[in-house]
């Protein structure tokens, strides 16, 4: 389904500031179709049209409002569940990056730390419910995570390069999979997604923990395995078969 201006014009946000153009963005996420709306007063908005079911969008909206107040993400303006639409601030500054310099790692670590300080009531991630556990390596990783000391925080759970914008501030987008989880899940996902070399991994973790605690390397490696397996299974389930 393509979003049309006529649908958006009914929203009060655009009543006195009509949309002049609506363009589908070239860079798209996996769970939404994203559009850029430009208005008469030269304001820009991101129009997100949900294309995946089974996600608590009300919870996502409330969490994004909270994170927006902390300048961790785009400010959301409203949620229209009847049309599967969320309208948010458009982040014109910032770029996606696949390789990170030490400067980027430093600021990303600070952002993830602030994200983990958010107080929000959400369900807890359970690897046994979210994964088909097969293979000795994954079984051992899940067992290690379950036996580790509880270190739950509000976790984004999807810190891949498409969901992080680097600019004057590091901002995180697409919060649909956020939940309560062990902080090492997000840390492991950054290490995996950006393919950090050992020295950069240590640098990132030290900036995150601020040298206050010893890094639990065993737990980190376990969550790397869990994260990789979760991604593989997600893509297996959500990628249409090739013809």
From TrEMBL:
Record-annotated Aminoglycoside phosphotransferase domain positions: 144-195
Alphabetized Gene3D superfamilies for the sequence: 3.90.1200.10, Phosphorylase Kinase, domain 1
Highest taxon in the source lineage: Bacteria
Keyword tags: Transferase
InterPro entries with a match to the protein in the record: Aminoglycoside_PTrfase, CcrZ_PhaseVar_Mediator, Kinase-like_dom_sf
GO molecular function: transferase activity
Protein name: Phosphotransferase family protein
